Amino acid sequence: MMRVEKSRGLKSALLGMSALSLLGLATVAQAAAADDNSDKLDEIIVSAERRPALEREVPIAVTSISGEKLDVLNSSGMDIRFLAARTPSLQAESSFGRTYPRFYIRGLGNADFDPNASQPVSVVYDDVAMENPMLKAFPVFDVGAVEVLRGPQGTLFGKNTPAGVVKIDSAKPSDTFGGFADLTYGTYDTVNFTGAVGGPIVKNVLKYRASVNLQRRNDWVQNEDISTKNDTDFEGYRDLAGRFQLEYTPNENLDVLLNVHGRQLDGSARLFRANIIQKGTNDLVPGFDIEKANQDGANPQKLNSFGSNLHIVYDAGPVTVTSVSGYERANVFSRGDIDGGVPSDVPFSVETGGYNSPRELSQEVRFASNDLGPWLLQGGLYYFNSYLAGKDYDYITATGAIDDQVRHKDRSETDGVFGSVKYKVTDALTLGGGVRYSHDNKSVESIRDFGYTGPIYLRTSVNGGNASWDVSADYAINSDVNAFVRVATGYLAPSIQDRITFANATSTAKAETTISYEAGVKSSLFDKRASLNLTGYYYDTSDMQLTAVGGASNTARLLNADHAIGYGVELEIEAKPVEHMLVTAGGSYNHTEIQDPNVSVATCGGGCTVTNALNAQGNALLNGNPLPEAPKWILNATFRYGVPVGLDGEVFFYTDWAYRGEDNFFLYTAKEFTGKAFLDGGIRVGYKNDAGYEVAAFVRNVLDQVRVIGAIDFNNLTGMVNEPRIIGVQAKYSF
Question: What average pLDDT does this structure show over 703-714?
Fold first, then answer.
């Protein structure tokens, strides 16, 4: 993504850009920024259609986050979940902590906690789709932009995108030497350091960019259990990631970009806290202290990952050929005291842990037309292969012995072919459409070495194919206002759940399909001093894949519901009402509903107040329930005002706020497991100048609100809470 002040001829220039140009957008953005008028908004350019285009002319509901806003949201050292509620209809959460984010767009997501879970929101990092949730956790640092694409994106992005895409693009090498160093320090010895340097090795032929990110925090939750002291304190981490990019451009037609990256995390797994919810309410118990816990178990977590991708872009005249090869792997160990307490506080004590090693290989070859007048054509082939080996344990807390052991080997393979076309019917009207055929094969070997009813070996496989499509129309009402309509389908491949800790069979779910209808208006107003985007949507998901998580048996089971529907409205506003002031506001109303009179799940293992209708077996009937982690309301806003100081300096004030309404943690409804509304805000005050120096003081979670944002329901009222208030200072130097 980039922002540019729209000039004469920009529109036609963008239409002629090839994929080769996309890799060099940062240079264009820097040149355009030099001519920026401070009292006007910049046009936004996105790559939501796999080629650069003005955001206002793209018939997709897309929000981009970049620049200062992205830096501010990421300043307190939080992992990728900092994106939650920062764009309309986007939610993110985790019961694993920093190693396993779960994304939801317009209510569609997957609350499954197992390593092989399929998610309907794809994370595409530098054009490589990350399938495994543990790979989706790679930190967001030194990036050009984050784009959130809402609605099915199967035609161009393919795998597991019926809800949408979180698209992250690293800052690319430049022919100009430069970089930055950005350091923050805050409460609990929180450190967040990001640095980057890059430039030419051989002018106009070979260039590089090296980036590093260190996030760390001391253990800040004291364990008050004095019986074992397995872990004296919790919630600390040391998270180090790096990226090196080398770009080779021997001539104007060929560009080769190599990206190598890795991560090492040593920290604490998600902290579960027993009996912190008042029975019959969703309030915290009186006297709850966020800095204290009482556990007899251990909570370590470690992750090591490595990845690389190779982009080759060749402009052959009438067509540009792009090849994207990706390889990602990780080794993850996590162990958590999931009962959240000591034996005197819970019905029974249990810890779970495991080792998991996901591996993913992907290859895409894409063809895009050049200079075909009113026609824009794209097409290509896609291949994906993954392997996941894992070993999971349950521990007897009193002795530390392993009570059971389950091993699994998961394999997945996807083949796809796709094509899309856009045709400019008139100067005002552009029509578009596309189709992708995908075929998936998945297999799982599940081995229980001991535990439950004894050893067992199971092999399960599923396969399926689907043709996803989309059609759209974009109409320029005038030079500043565009209206669009879009109909698109999405596909989630059949899934397997291999959790056999307390079962003698795996569960499967058949393929899920979605059809989505949306219409919207995107506008630039008041001589480019304001913009307004408004989208309304409706979707219907058939054979909705659901995961019954938790319950009395603390397991996970796949099932299909006949339908799930969703509808809502999304609004985004950006304005410069006066010079040096920038105001943004966004929000969404999302209604979701499961429609199946027969589907049901087990409820909590005791202690919670179920409000759901029950069947004769005592299971909760899901018909009419909202989807989990799907708040009706998401709102966000930012305000920035700067005061010039001297010839080249500025004192600035920046504040950002995000509101998430009530949501359900599980498929069934219970008073205790309804998440309270949460308002999260930040304030930043500082000074910067044209010489590249910047200093600031900041506060995250200004209101110091503490909310239960997730729960474990199998034996007591165990909850997880949000990040604490962080107060800190920041220093940055750019050169």
Answer: 92
